[in-house]
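Entry for the shared binder. Reason: the reviewer on the internal report wants the predicted structure included alongside the sequence.
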Amino acid sequence: MKQKIELLREFSIPLIAGVVVALFWANFGASSYHDFVEGQFLGHLSFHFVTNELFMVFFFGIAAVEITQSCLPGGDLNPPRKAINPLLATLGGVVGPVAVYLGLNYLIGDPSLARGWGIPTATDIALAWLVARLVFGAGHPAVPFLLLLAVADDAIGLAIIAIFYADPNVPAAPQWLLLILAAMAVSYLLRRLKVSNYWPYLIIGGGLSWVGLFMAHLHPALALVFVVPFLPHARANTAHLFEDDPQDRSTLTTFEHEWKIFVDFGLFMFGLANAGVMFSEVGMATWLVLSSLIVGKTVGITAMGYLGVALGFPLPEKVGGKELLVVGIVAGLGMTVALFVAGEAFSDPGIQGAAKMGALMSGGIALLALITGRLFKIEKIH
């Protein structure tokens, strides 16, 4: 049973199932789907609110764990010189899609679509990891390179959501952000007091942070991003991203282990709440998002990776030009975070639906990556 559960998690089956159910329901029962997602679900809270404002707190919290661990001595982001090339590639993977989106929108789009520039900036970490393993094999150095890139550009994605995608209809109330500082101070104090149970950090620190973001009219799903780095953790990190270190039993690792299965299977809720797009809503925003993910990610990552080499920061061993190009293609898998940003970028249901369709269609990039890997005769390393 445990092996079957791990298989479901590894292949992102809950997220994919949620997306499929949402698409089917929205296209064959639009009224009932809308009533379910937007109607009362938990008390006076809607299913959409429970999913995007509460559940996603833990999704981004787990992402913050990966970022925190990778910054520790021995981690993939430490020392900084070791991470220069993938971080330059990350920059290309953010700037490239933004440039393609805004450029295409200027030439053939509409000014009302400009706000969607942040949608194609992030990479779906879980799907990218899965596809990379299928293309390169689990032991290929391109896999941790891609994961590091994906985690870093998701960190940038978090900042973009917090800074640029506040509700345009509600003015920001920055005075409430003092509660985030209070949350960080409390979390720091808890660590100084050697509190090893993660619940006080989540309840007190996370609670203060969530209220601060909510009242400031910023997205509260980012609440744990400010708290997770203060969870007691090992002095060094000996495992790569998404690898387990059996010797690490710190509070940070315990939180990740005990909540990751909830997050992985809870992504069914996310897919159900956010992927209910009618096929008739395919429009200009769809093609802008999809083109930016395919072309912008690939060109941006490849170009900046080569720039890193020219500046004296080499690619990992066995990662050459063709491997770098395929990494760029795989990084175009937007899905989860792209869907999330699309929901924040546009308030108009038609435009939002079209943008979400572009994020959903990016799942087809997996097939493109597999075909390209086969054509380039990428050597698999298991």
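Summary line for the report: Residues 169-218 form one domain.
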